[in-house]
């Protein structure tokens, strides 16, 4: 958990940005501070967050601070209320203090130390109030109902998403990626996930969300590569009725719906320069402006973005804004393609086989040795998504619980490399038809090559281990150890 997440939440309502900022600076060290420039926004924030204390300026457009705080008392009695005013307002305030149940009124110009003390006192009052409320609820519910409720919550949380659900072999290069992602999850930092299509970037982003302090908030996904610019803007930031032809009613954008949670922007590298400017502004200001609306709405979201492109290259080529890149890449994670972690192929394939068999309502199935060898040797240019498709196809077309190599599509059987892969690496090992892995550490690349060679030899020699060991200059025991390491033979 981010340690700041435990801090009480204080909402500052003031239409003057400078006063908002001065209060934020004073309170920021001890509290989490939200700010609102008008009472509409303040209402939204109180209804979405567990605000402990609200500080409201008396002079607000449309409504006085006291009027607003009266409403707060009625709707959210647990929120402790403080009003801030100049001398000239004090008469009105005194009359309203009782009705609005004001904890304290603070005169301008306020002294930072005093303000801090006042808010600390108010937070204590709020904690007392909430503690009593909880106690009352607990007493009413009875211990059994309480325990059941807690257990259900726990089960749901576990069932959702977890780094353990990202299937991988022991010692997989993905371990390091997951460990870093898990550490980063705690902090409200923008994260950029790089990796080829189908490598599991979204899965990783989800796991980060559910491991983050925002886990109780929404996780929303937008594929930025799939829709035209104008639609994307309206999808993300919303629009007002009549903003453009076809906008027949107000539409709340994904950013607003994700308030308090995480927005996953997939294929961010595909966005246009015009959209990039708009997104940058949203991230800088922490507020969105729905298309056709003059009013900005504050949003509290964490952004995780992903792309199959090397975004730094795109920046260098002038196709992606550098300032946006740095906003998004608070930290960067690189998910290696499947061919660079051949040890993961079989564990992932097995877990997918179970899942797909369940989805298709089929008996649990297994792969035979040849099928396993074929999977390990194929470079999977479409990564895990392609693997999943192949397994679904083989299971749907195959005629029993044992999946054979011949149940896969022909491209796998030829030992051919996928066209995209061949193009990327463009180096083929002499005559074997094996593609050199294009990236990863030296060890990862050597592992990938080793797995391919083993698979090729085993298939050619029809699984005769004595002949294979001889050809490869290994003992039988050594060969078996290697086959096991790459999942080509079970222990
Ligand atoms: N390690 C894994 N274990 C099990 N399933 C996985 C794993 N990685 C990915 N998958 C599955 O593979 C599919 C593709 O993963 P995902 O959508 O996360 O990839 P992606 O990199 O975001 O792809 P794209 O960039 O094309 O959107 C999903 O069905 C996902 O659940």
TrEMBL record:
GO biological process terms held by the UniProt record: phosphorelay signal transduction system; regulation of DNA-templated transcription
InterPro entries in the record: AAA+_ATPase, AAA_lid_NorR, CheY-like_superfamily, Homeodomain-like_sf, HTH_Fis, P-loop_NTPase, Sig_transdc_resp-reg_receiver, Sigma_54_int
Signal peptide (residue range): none
A family per Pfam: Sigma54_activat
Source species, domain of life: Bacteria
SMART domains for this protein: AAA, REC
Response regulatory domain boundaries: 9-123
Positions of the Sigma-54 factor interaction domain: 167-396
Keywords: ATP-binding, DNA-binding, Nucleotide-binding, Phosphoprotein, Transcription, Transcription regulation
Coiled-coil region list: none
GO MF terms, alphabetically ordered: ATP binding; sequence-specific DNA binding
Cross-referenced CDD domains: AAA
Residues found modified as 4-aspartylphosphate: 57
Matching PANTHER family: PTS-DEPENDENT DIHYDROXYACETONE KINASE OPERON REGULATORY PROTEIN-RELATED, TRANSCRIPTIONAL REGULATORY PROTEIN
Official protein name in the record: Sigma-54-dependent Fis family transcriptional regulator
Species annotation: Ideonella dechloratans
């Amino acid at each position: 958990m981010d340690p700041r997440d435990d801090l009480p939440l204080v909402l500052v309502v003031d239409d003057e940005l400078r006063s908002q900022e001065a209060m934020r600076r004073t309170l920021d060290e001890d509290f989490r501070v939200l700010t609102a420039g008008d009472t509409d926004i303040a209402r939204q924030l109180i209804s979405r967050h567990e605000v402990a204390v609200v500080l409201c300026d008396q002079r607000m457009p449309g409504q006085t601070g006291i009027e607003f705080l009266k409403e707060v008392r009625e709707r959210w009695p647990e929120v402790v209320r403080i009003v801030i005013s100049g001398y000239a307002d004090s008469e009105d305030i005194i009359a309203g203090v009782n009705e609005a149940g004001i904890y304290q009124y603070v005169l301008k110009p306020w002294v930072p130390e005093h303000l801090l003390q006042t808010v600390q006192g108010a937070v204590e009052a709020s904690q007392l109030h909430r503690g009593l409320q909880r106690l009352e609820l607990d007493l009413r519910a009875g211990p059994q109902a309480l325990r059941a409720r807690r257990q259900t919550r726990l089960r749901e949380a576990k069932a959702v998403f977890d780094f353990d659900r990202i299937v991988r072999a022991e010692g997989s290069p993905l371990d390091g990626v997951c460990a870093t992602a898990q550490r980063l999850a705690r902090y409200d930092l923008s994260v950029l996930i790089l990796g080829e299509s189908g490598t599991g970037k979204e899965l990783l982003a989800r796991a980060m969300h559910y491991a983050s302090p925002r886990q109780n908030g929404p996780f929303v996904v937008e594929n930025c590569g799939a829709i035209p610019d104008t639609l994307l803007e309206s999808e993300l930031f919303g629009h007002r009725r009549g903003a453009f032809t076809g906008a027949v009613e107000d539409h709340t954008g994904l950013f607003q719906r994700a308030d308090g949670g995480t927005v996953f922007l997939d294929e961010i590298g595909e966005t246009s320069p015009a959209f990039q400017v708009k997104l940058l502004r949203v991230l800088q200001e922490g507020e969105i402006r729905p298309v056709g609306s003059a009013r900005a709405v504050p949003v509290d979201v964490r952004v995780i973005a992903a792309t199959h492109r090397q975004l730094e290259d795109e920046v260098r080529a002038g196709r992606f804004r550098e300032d946006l890149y740095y906003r998004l890449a608070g930290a960067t994670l690189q998910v290696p393609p499947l061919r660079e972690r051949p040890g993961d192929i079989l564990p992932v394939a097995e877990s997918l086989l179970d899942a797909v068999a369940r989805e298709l309502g089929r008996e649990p199935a297994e792969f035979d040795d040849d099928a396993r060898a074929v999977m390990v040797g194929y470079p999977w240019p479409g990564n895990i998504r392609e693997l999943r498709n192949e397994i679904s196809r083989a299971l749907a077309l195959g005629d029993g619980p044992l999946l054979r190599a011949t149940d896969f599509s022909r491209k796998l059987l030829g030992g051919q490399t996928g066209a995209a892969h061949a193009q990327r690496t463009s180096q083929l090992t002499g005559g074997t038809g094996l593609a050199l892995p294009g990236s990863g550490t030296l060890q990862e690349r050597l592992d990938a090559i080793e797995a391919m060679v083993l698979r090729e030899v085993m298939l050619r020699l029809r699984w005769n281990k004595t002949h294979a060991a001889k050809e490869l200059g290994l003992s039988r025991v050594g060969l078996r150890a290697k086959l096991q390491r790459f999942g080509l033979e079970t222990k």
